[in-house]
């Protein structure tokens, strides 16, 4: 089994939490003399909060300083749909903490990268650096699960592949939005002894562990299975290339100060920090099927769209792989939600549906990239998209 | 509420006062049989409600009578509470020491409300932080069927297959035991029953290729003392020297292996998600097991023991005393996890220890609970999958035309997989001698299909489409178990009756409808005495208690959901009648009649 580098979907997951949005007041339209318009989450430490205490707040200040402007925030919870509500609604021009290469926006050069880490109690499980460590299946491991509108975090798949399944506990990443710092619960569970090892996204783990005596943070080394390292950029609207170039220059110019902020917030960064090309968006071209292939990448169109034979095959896979058992014989729903209606929790594009199939989703949707080929996933996607259309194979009788 | 206090209630037929009015809803027979010598074998819930069914015998009968046929029409809402979880509210509250306890659907919050204060304010809420991954493997909504109280603790199970004891006074967790493994599809939805110092609870997940079991935990610590599987070798099923099967087909070694193709018992189902009864005199627990898996019968030739069976076990060590398979080689998804109501009554003029089991099969079974012998099995709703039960063998006489098979659509099977009755429990009144059964008249087309086992996903193997049967869709049936016939019935043309039933010494029977009506009918005639429209469909079970003011109150959940009720959710589409394991076809109108809710209603005079 290869879980390959499948960074895009992984980043989506952390994006839901790590993202900081920026924007100016809702009533202004665009441009300069209104300040640096940033959309940000008002309650998402260590990234941002309304009091300006997060590291993305601090980095936004550095950028604004370079522009000779002030930061003007529009606060918006970092949940599904906020690009639509923020950047694309024109209420801000910059979103911070965006995974490099994210399709919905144009991204700048990355200004840091981080990785998933282990958090353990000092003196226990020494030398733990990889997810295939043979000690892990006998430890109680905690991970974040991304609540109502996210997915499972990338390391879970790798852990499962190495025998850690029964011993894994999920902690809500979003929790109750009224709590001061929902993600801290996972770290505190290590301190309390509820779990032995937390596997968490570096910036979260670094920040909360630094406030908890007796905990050790160790970056997880990439294995053949997966890279858990992700590069983080600023996001601007797709057509805003001028601003992207301007921000790239600022990020280079102010890099030492940005690094200092990240150090102050204990953001774990791999040694090969500013290395090379973003690993995102490389994606497997659709082609000869291979099991365990990388999930389909969003920018790619579905190679099987409108291919009637492929729809029939997609229908057969839908039944053979028990999709029908949860989502209904013809996708009408049951244990899992309906796929026939207009409600799409995780996005309605072919690429988003394919990503949901490949990566799995919160509340029990399995990650099928372990069992299905890329081609199979695209064909199931094509079948799902054909529901309630004249092309739907074997439509339900009434 | 302990066994020692289970003073025997001898209730002669008390119906001297009024001769019953001519029954308005009668379809079949005449007036109730004269009731003589009904003997209840466990204490009734006098004032409080500590166990899921109120008593060990699962009668759901309350001796409270200040609300009665003469005044129930004046019943009104006293207070309401919301759990905030708009999913199926199955089960019922508990009342202990002036506190009302409610377990919500997933995330399985436990609420405590102070009944001594106006409006019953919340005292505390306990959040077990159940694993959200369990949501995606729960076959039929994320329901919970309630808790038991014992030894100062509220004991209940979470969807992620843990049993939890919570201090009833403080709301603090006392112990937590992992009973099942969600990664292979095991969840828990049932209400544990506490018997002496054992917590009895079983696993759900019969649609996911699990191997069903029931466990006995230590009440003080939660430690697992015994575990009995329902497939596999006798050592796993806890069938030993004390086991006596009444029928020849249930005798022999390791039938849980030999009645399956090689190794298929390992994925064979036989879960426990309904109700457990206890007879303190015989010191035996009684419960039923779920369907065999997968739903495609051609993939598991043989009787598939011990799925769809009733078990009698010793609660201390789990040893099986007898078992009887209600549906050998089930091919319709007829789980038999329904309640077993324990009553001593004369049978052919001889006092006998009886067990009433209104089954999904549509047959009402009367068993001798000391031996497992079937004394009678008569249909209480339209049935065509079998013509009758052969009492000499205890087996059904199946209509070959209704046998399901791979790649063949068998049409018009009645009842459907959801049964002529679901888990929703009946009530028995010793004053009338009648069992009040919440019944369904739903039929189906069933095509068995090939299926692959993929851990943690449905292992189903059938394409099913259900639809309402002829004439009516639901019915509250008042059944005379001794004469084996219906005395009266109240029909529901819209939906199945998917709530439980409560009978009281005030001769009132309470139940709810899927479109949200909560009703009181006369226990002797079925005449409707009172009704109230709640905010959502009712799939929970009514209960009653005496408040600190000495008055009687009735409580019910209003929150549509469960297998059939979940079709009311926006996440299920009506244009795929095969969706939600086939129930959409039968329930496609429900969104027009109700919507999700999460309210506890308390009524009083």
Q: What would your notes on this structure say?
A:
The complex is a heterodimer of chains A (398) and B (605). Chain A is globular and about 60 Å long. In chain A, 30% of the residues lie in helices and 16% in strands. Chain A has 398 residues and is α/β, with parallel strands linked by helices. Chain A has twelve helices and 13 strands. In chain A, strand 9, helix 4 (154-161) and strand 10 form a beta-alpha-beta unit. Residues 1-32 and 272-299 of chain A have low confidence and may be disordered. Chain B has 605 residues and is mainly beta. Chain B is built from four helices and 40 strands. In chain B, strands 1-2-21-22-23-24 form a six-stranded antiparallel beta sheet, with no helix packed on it. A five-stranded mixed beta sheet of chain B has the order 3-34-35-36-37, with no helix packed on it. In chain B, strand 10 (153-158) and strand 11 form a beta hairpin. Chain B is globular and about 60 Å long. The A-B interface holds A 145, 147, 165-166, 169-170, 172, 319-322, 324-338, 340-341, 343, 362-366, 371, 388, 396-398 and B 131-140, 181, 183, 207, 449, 451-452, 454, 456-460, 463, 566, 569-582, 584.
Strand content of chain B: 35-45%
β-strand number of chain B: 40
Average pLDDT level of chain B:
93
Radius of gyration of chain B from the CA trace? 22 Å
Helix fraction of chain A? 25-40%
Which value, in Å, is the CA radius of gyration of chain A?
21 Å
Straight-line distance between termini of chain B: 26 Å
């Amino acid at each position: 089994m290869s879980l390959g580098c499948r960074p895009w979907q992984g980043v989506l997951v952390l994006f839901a939490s790590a993202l900081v949005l920026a924007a100016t007041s809702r009533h202004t339209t665009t441009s300069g003399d209104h300040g640096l318009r940033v959309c940000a989450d008002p309650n998402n430490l260590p990234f941002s909060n309304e009091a300006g205490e997060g590291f993305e707040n601090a980095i936004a200040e550095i950028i604004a300083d370079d522009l000779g402007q002030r930061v003007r925030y529009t606060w918006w919870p970092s949940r599904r749909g906020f690009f639509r509500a923020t950047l694309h609604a024109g209420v801000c021009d910059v979103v911070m903490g965006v995974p490099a290469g994210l399709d919905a926006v144009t991204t700048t050069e990355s200004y840091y990268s981080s990785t998933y880490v282990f958090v353990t109690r000092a003196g226990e499980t020494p030398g733990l650096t990889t997810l295939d460590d043979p000690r892990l299946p006998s430890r109680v491991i905690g991970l974040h699960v991304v609540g109502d509108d996210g997915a499972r975090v990338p390391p879970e798949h790798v852990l499962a592949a190495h025998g850690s399944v029964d011993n894994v506990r999920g902690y809500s990443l979003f929790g109750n939005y009224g709590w001061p710092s929902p993600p801290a619960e996972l770290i505190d569970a290590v301190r309390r002894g509820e779990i032995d090892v937390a596997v968490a996204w570096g910036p979260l783990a670094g920040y909360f562990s630094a406030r908890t005596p007796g905990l050790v943070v160790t970056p997880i080394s990439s294995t053949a299975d997966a890279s858990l390292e992700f590069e983080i950029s600023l996001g601007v609207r797709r057509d805003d290339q001028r601003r992207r170039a301007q921000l790239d220059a600022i990020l280079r110019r102010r890099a030492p100060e940005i690094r200092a902020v990240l150090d102050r917030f204990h953001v774990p960064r791999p040694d090969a920090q500013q290395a090379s090309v973003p690993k995102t968006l490389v994606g497997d071209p659709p082609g000869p099927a291979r099991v365990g292939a990388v999930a389909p990448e969003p920018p790619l169109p579905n190679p099987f769209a409108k291919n009637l034979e492929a729809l029939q095959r997609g229908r057969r896979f839908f039944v053979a792989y028990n999709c029908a058992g949860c989502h209904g014989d013809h996708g009408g729903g049951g244990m899992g939600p309906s796929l026939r209606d207009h409600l799409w929790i995780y996005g309605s594009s072919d690429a988003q549906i394919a990503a949901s199939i490949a990566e799995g989703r919160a509340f029990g949707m399995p990650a099928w990239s372990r069992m299905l080929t890329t081609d199979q996933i695209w064909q199931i996607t094509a079948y799902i998209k054909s529901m309630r259309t004249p092309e739907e194979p074997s439509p339900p009788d009434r | 509420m302990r066994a020692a206090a289970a003073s025997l209630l001898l209730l002669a037929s008390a119906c001297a006062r009024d001769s019953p009015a001519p029954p308005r809803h009668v379809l079949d027979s005449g007036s109730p049989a004269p009731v003589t010598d009904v003997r209840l074998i466990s204490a009734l819930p006098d004032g409080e409600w500590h166990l899921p069914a109120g008593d060990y015998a699962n009668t759901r009968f309350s001796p409270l009578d200040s609300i009665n046929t003469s005044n129930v029409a004046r019943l009104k809402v006293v207070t309401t509470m919301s759990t905030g979880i708009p999913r199926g509210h199955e089960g019922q509250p508990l009342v202990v020491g002036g506190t009302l306890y409610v377990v919500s659907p997933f995330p399985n919050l436990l609420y405590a409300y102070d009944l001594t204060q106006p409006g019953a304010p919340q005292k505390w809420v306990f959040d077990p932080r159940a694993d959200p991954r369990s949501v995606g493997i729960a076959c039929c909504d994320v329901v919970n069927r309630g808790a038991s109280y014992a030894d100062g603790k509220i004991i209940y199970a979470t969807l992620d297959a843990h049993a939890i004891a919570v201090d009833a006074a403080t709301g603090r967790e006392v112990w937590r035991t992992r009973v099942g493994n969600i990664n292979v599809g095991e969840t828990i939805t049932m209400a544990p029953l506490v018997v002496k110092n054992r917590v009895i609870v079983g696993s759900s997940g019969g649609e996911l290729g699990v191997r069903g079991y029931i466990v006995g935990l230590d009440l003080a610590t939660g430690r697992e003392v015994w575990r009995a599987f329902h497939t596999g070798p006798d050592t796993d099923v806890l069938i030993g020297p004390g086991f006596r099967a009444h029928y020849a087909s249930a005798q022999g070694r390791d039938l849980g292996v030999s009645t399956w193709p090689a190794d298929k018992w390992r994925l064979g189902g036989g879960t426990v998600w309904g109700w457990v009864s206890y007879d303190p005199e015989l010191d035996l627990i009684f419960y039923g097991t779920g369907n065999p898996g997968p739903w495609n019968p051609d993939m598991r030739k043989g009787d598939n023991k011990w799925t769809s069976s009733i078990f009698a076990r010793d609660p201390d060590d789990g040893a099986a005393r007898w078992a009887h398979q209600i549906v050998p080689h089930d091919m319709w998804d007829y789980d038999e996890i329904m309640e077993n109501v324990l009553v001593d009554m004369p049978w052919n003029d001889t006092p006998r220890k009886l067990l009433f089991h209104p089954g999904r099969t549509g047959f009402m079974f009367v068993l001798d609970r000391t031996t497992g012998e079937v004394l009678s099995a008569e249909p209480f709703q339209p049935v065509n999958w079998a013509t009758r039960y052969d009492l000499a063998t205890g087996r059904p006489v199946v209509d070959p035309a209704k046998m399901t098979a791979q790649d063949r659509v068998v049409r018009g099977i009645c009842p459907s997989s959801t049964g002529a009755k679901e888990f929703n429990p009946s009530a028995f009144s010793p004053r009338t001698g009648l069992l009040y059964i919440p019944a369904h008249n739903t039929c189906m087309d069933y095509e068995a299909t090939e299926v692959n086992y993929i851990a943690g996903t449905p292992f189903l193997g059938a394409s099913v489409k259900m639809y309402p049967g002829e004439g009516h869709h639901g019915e509250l049936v008042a059944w005379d178990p001794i004469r084996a016939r219906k005395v009266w019935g109240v029909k529901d043309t819209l939906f199945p009756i998917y709530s439980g039933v409560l009978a009281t010494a005030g001769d009132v029977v309470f139940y709810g409808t899927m479109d949200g009506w909560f009703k009181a009918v006369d226990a002797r005639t079925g005449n409707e005495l009172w009704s109230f429209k709640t905010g959502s469909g009712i799939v929970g079970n009514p209960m009653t208690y005496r408040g600190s003011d000495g008055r009687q109150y009735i409580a019910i959940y209003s929150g549509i959901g469960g297998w059939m009720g979940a079709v009311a959710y926006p996440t299920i589409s009506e244009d795929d009648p095969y969706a939600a394991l086939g129930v959409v076809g039968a329930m496609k109108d429900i969104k027009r009649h109700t919507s999700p809710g999460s309210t506890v209603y308390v009524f009083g005079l």
